[in-house]
Amino acid sequence: MRKYKLSNTKVWESGKDESTGNDGSRKGGSESENGAENDGRSDENICEKFFGFFIKFREDLANIIDKNAIDENKGIMKALLLGNREEIDDEEISILKVCGLSHIFAISGLHISILGVGVYRALRKKFMITPSAIFSGLTILLYGIMIGFTVSTMRGVIMFEIYMGAEILGRTYDRINSILCAAIIVGIVYPFGIMGFSYQMSFLATIVCNFVLDIIIEFLKADGTIRRIIFSTMSINMILLLLVADNYYEIPLFASLCNIIIIPFVPFVIGIGFLGLLTFKITFFSKFLFFIGGGLCGLGINILRKIADLSNSRMICGKMSMWQVILVLIILSVYIIVCKYFLMQRENKKIKTRDFNDYKDKRSIRIIKDVTFICVYVLIYFIVSFYGIKNGNCSEGLFMADVGQGYRSEEHTSELQSH
């Protein structure tokens, strides 16, 4: 085979390729072009190896859970820790949806804060702020890559990285700027996801928890742990109810009750789950941790199963009218503004009297505040589910059954009933 040198590029004219043994297979091809192709392949190989490492690492962590966790609860533990929902029973998924708890499997700020803050605080006992923050931030970034950057995961990772950056620079962590930065970056990565339920729910829940919730809890003076859990859960569900009903045309009536029962134990289960993964070499200790975590998961599923079996556990509200949306927004806005107004009045009174002690409300005032909150809560539920209550036994209706993420089965029935 003859070679001609043209501008530092070797070109094969014809004949048998000496390197491959194929006749004419590289006719007219250039080494420069093949080099570029090889460079592209090398880049692809690097990416494949990089992401393949995390896929393999995730599989190794799943194997640790398989070896140490209880068989009945392996799927739930994998979903909570690794975001892997493939092994969860369909019945369990249905129960969690009916009870308004499917959000606990979304790897978000809760999981990231438990892992990231836990690592950061552990390192701070031995190291300075900068190396501790860098290592913690890197850990969460790699954890996000391993899990996969969904909307909620990406938001949580971005906000945590900003928090670590503030620690390194010695600046105050600003929640508003952090949420705005996360919203912009996630919107750029998922431009069509802005109108999606996951994006809206993730950021609305974050805004409620960081700003609105503080106003309501401070106004109610829910200082005790039990009161704080109850009113926090009811406040979040009350505000997010409009979004849930608008997307799914149904509302879980016992969502607040289920969240009050289950949510306080979720951080504990996630925490001991991560600890069980870290101590997998100490087999008996890791099995003990997964036994506790899995046992709590099983107990929680059994409780939720009883609640889901109750009649009217879900109310089919249908598509809401504009008057419903506007009325709910007005009620929520007025209630939050009134709460803020009384808080400002309380602060002004402290300044005038120079008495900055935070006294408890009288029993009668506390009862009035609690009853008012419950009335607002019930009123919003009633407005959102108005057509579901009004048409509870109509002659013609439409039953929509949620059969998976983004899928529904439709069935026309003689009676529209809430299930």
Number of helices: 15
Major beta sheet, strand line-up: 1-2
Residues in helix, %: 55-70%
Distance N terminus to C terminus? 79 Å
N-to-C SSE series? EEHHHHHHHHHEHHHEHHHEE
**What proportion of the residues form beta strands (DSSP E)?**
5-15%
- What is the mean pLDDT? 80
Compute the number of strand runs.
6
Summing up helix and strand content along with how strands pair, one would put the structural category as mainly alpha
Question: Main β-sheet: number of strands, strand sense, barrel status?
Answer: 2 strands, antiparallel
| Shape, per Cα inertia axes | globular
Cα radius of gyration in angstroms = 28 Å
Uncertain residue segments: 1-37, 393-419
Please give the oligomerization state of what you see.
single chain
Can you describe what's shown?
It is a single chain. With 419 residues, the chain is mainly alpha-helical. The protein contains 15 helices and six strands. The protein has helices at 31-68, 74-82, 90-98, 109-124, 129-147, 151-169, 175-189, 197-220, 225-248, 255-262, 266-278, 283-308, 322-353, 363-384, 386-390; strands at 3-6, 9-12, 250-252, 314-316, 397-404, 407-413. The strands form three sheets. The protein has a two-stranded antiparallel sheet. Strands 3-4 form a two-stranded antiparallel sheet. A hairpin with a 2-residue loop joins strand 5 (397-404) and strand 6 (407-413). Helix 4 (109-124) packs parallel to helix 6 and helix 13 (322-353) packs antiparallel against helix 14 (363-384). The longest helix is centred in the first third of the chain and has 38 residues, at 31-68. The chain is globular, with a radius of gyration of 28 Å. The relative contact order is 0.08. Mean pLDDT is 80; it is low at 1-37 and 393-419.
